[in-house]
Write a structure and sequence with these properties.
This protein is of the alpha+beta class and about 350 residues long. It contains twelve helices and 13 strands.
Length: about 350
């Protein structure tokens, strides 16, 4: 006897979450997850179990909301998976640690194609694989009935391998400020996409799939970095967190920053010229490249991949960020930026 085909609600793709079902989707997604070296017990039970030989676990979480952090018409599912992982892996690296595993929570409409979710899972897995990390668990729920947006929450766990964590509060007067990774590329790519274009591909790809310098975080910790963070909301804004936590003034050298981030006639310069924008605004205030910025004692030789872009000075009563002695707010205005970086609810 032939079984009747299940009814597919009108308008639903045949492979939607509604049709495949929660556990069917989870099975497909986990097939893309890869394997975490630190996992003693992986997905499939009520919780995963990870080896933690250091005795401490670094933990961080990030939430990506469709329409705010990504758009499905601008980025593929794999792009979104890469981006979601990168935001968390960079936070772990900024503590001087290496990511061991991810936990992923997802809320989506019932008509979300399962193939799209598999693409997100593949992107997450590909970003984690070089570090020996993988998704080891999570949760899948139906989004609110009146919401068509996907919400992706990623928690990353990391290992310090015996190192002390590098905090935001350790910068001291006399330290050197240094950068690893690139700045401004994601913001430049976003500006291009907002104008309805898709090239130059270099900056658009940087927005879709940031490339944080993960290894630079543990290397900085090994070399004695005194403070560190990743640049997710903008260089001026994120260095402001270090300045406030350490009660110091961080003074950036504009020429050094230009040399480090703005290649003559490079992609950012070309996009700036085409859009009538100052690319230095993207370097100073653009987020989501997830470069790392840190402070080091002046006598330390910077690790490979790090370049000096400023210095740390005593603050008195007014900690903050300056560029060649000028306030961050004044410099942001001078390059046409709306504030020193991204601030939620502003």
């Amino acid at each position: 006897m032939t079984r009747p085909r299940p009814l597919v609600p009108r308008g639903d793709p045949a492979d939607s979450v509604r049709v495949v079902g929660e556990f069917g989707v989870i099975g497909r997604v986990l097939a893309q997850a890869g394997t975490a070296r630190a996992a003693q017990v992986g997905p499939g039970d009520d919780a995963a179990v990870l080896h933690a030989p250091d005795g401490r676990v670094v933990a961080t979480t990030d939430v990506l909301v469709e329409g705010r952090h990504f758009r499905r018409d601008w980025s593929s599912a794999e792009d979104i998976g890469h981006k979601a992982a990168a935001a968390n892996l960079a936070d772990v690296a900024a503590m001087g640690a290496t990511t061991t595993a991810l936990l992923v929570g997802l809320a989506c409409p019932p008509d979300t194609p399962t193939t799209w979710l598999e693409g997100v899972a593949a992107g997450l897995a590909a970003e984690c694989a070089p570090l020996g990390a993988a998704v080891v668990g999570g949760d899948l729920v139906t989004a609110a009935a009146d919401s068509a947006a996907v919400v992706l929450s990623v928690t990353a766990l990391g290992d310090l391998a015996g190192r002390s964590p590098v905090l935001r509060s350790g910068a001291r007067a006399g330290d050197v400020v240094a950068l690893a990774g690139r700045l401004g590329w994601s913001a430049g790519g976003l500006a291009v996409l907002r104008r309805g274009f898709s090239s130059p591909m270099a900056v658009v790809s940087a927005h879709r799939r940031p490339t944080p310098p993960y290894a630079a975080g543990p290397a900085a910790a090994e070399r004695g970095a005194t403070a560190m963070c990743d640049v997710s909301d903008g260089l001026l804004a994120d260095l402001g967190h270090i300045a406030t936590a350490s009660r110091v003034v961080v003074d950036l050298d504009r020429d050094a920053l230009v040399r480090a981030c703005l290649e003559p006639n490079g992609p950012l310069q070309q996009v700036g010229a085409a859009l009538g924008a100052d690319p230095l605004a993207w370097v100073l205030t653009g987020g989501e490249d997830h470069a790392l910025v840190a402070t080091f004692p002046a006598w330390v030789e910077l690790p490979e991949g790090w370049v000096a872009i400023g210095s740390v000075q005593k603050a008195g009563k007014n900690p903050g960020v300056r560029v060649n002695g000028k306030s961050a707010d004044d410099v942001a205005r001078s390059v046409g930026a709306e504030g020193t970086g991204h601030v939620h609810f502003r």
